[in-house]
Write a structure and sequence with these properties.
Length: 210
Amino acid sequence: MLLLVVQNSCICRGATVISTIPAGSRIVCDTSVSVGDGKITIELWPQSAPVGVQRFVDLVKDGFFDGLPMFRAVPGFLIQFGINPDHDMQSKWEAAGNIADDSKSSIPFTDGIVSYAGYGKGSRGTHLFMTLGNQPGLGKSPWEVPVGKVVGGLDVMHGIYTGYGDKVNQGRLRGKKGKDYLSEFDKLDSFKKCIFEPAGGAVETGAVEL
């Protein structure tokens, strides 16, 4: 089997980061959603977003997604995640800094697209989202470049609890008492665990040195 290995360099906090994620690799997540088997599979697109995909994979391999809440679930719009209630884990990745933006993409934001959330140029860090339905208004900002798409478990994605909408305070969630604050939202769905499955290879896990 011929594997396409995409390499891309970016300058992130003074270091050159090389992405060598094979095209066709996937992230497989077990969730708390009580639909089907509760699993969501995301196909990664390093061809269009090598920098973003590399950070996504590094987060998964480091266990960042273990117990990660889907804290912003807006009906008919998106599911956002990326704040770990474990303060030490969150602090570790905030200290790692943001990554450079990938090149602008023309890929439309259809149902199940996965992208980073951000607030300006070079603002991608740990926040990502999955689109619920077609979202033609997305993809215009520099941080909104698809890193992949949900290819398995779309029914699970659409079964994520959206009753809290935008009610979760992100500042309180990322604070030292984030776990206590999270307990106030007992219906909030979360990722139980995610694993990286490289194309043509074995599952990869383990802490990431920053």
